[in-house]
Structures are given as structure tokens and as C-alpha cells.
Amino acid sequence: MSAGEERAARNEALFREFNERVERLAGAVVLDRIRFVCECGDLECVERVDLTRAAYEDVRGDPTRFVVAPGHENPEIERAVVRGEGYLVVEKVEHAAQVATEHDPRA
Fold this sequence. Notes:
Layout: H1 3-26, E1 34-37, E2 48-51, H2 53-60, E3 65-68, E4 78-84, E5 87-92, H3 94-102
Helix pairs in contact: 1-3
């Protein structure tokens, strides 16, 4: 894994931690859908993705999975495994999967 790929994997883990906080805050309010930040590796990304709480929990059930805006997937370190309405779920591969697992806030 290159230094750039390592940085992208760490950035994605940072966005995942932010979304964990968003979900906790949204827990006090009953919402059909919650707006999360795109968990791609681009620190300048401002895209948002809307998911149901159940869909978000499905993503968080696997520490190698992240939710990104369509077109934000990085085939060098991940593959798309679910296509939802306005979002993709990607799964990290190889070293990126190890980085994601090591930085899982739910572990």
C-alpha cells in the first residue's frame, strides 16, 4: 500500500468516527433518514449521504465497510459491495482492511 493509500484509509476511518457521533446525536430524535458525511478518503470532500439507521448499522456491522457518495470509491483499496439510494457501501481490501479494523471505534 502506498503512502497515499495509507493516508486515504486513515482519512476514511476519521470520517467513520465523525459519523458515529452523528448517529449518537440523532438517537435522541426519531428520523426516517440520517444525513452522514461521505467516508471517502478525500479530506476536502463535502458530500453527504442519507441512510436509514438500519442501513447505517448494517455498514457498521463490518469494520472494513464504509459509506461513500457514488463515484467516491477508490478501487485501489476498496470494492463496492452495496448500492443504495444515493450512496455506496465499500469494503476495504488487503492492508486498507487492516487499517480500517485497527481504527474501528466500535472495537
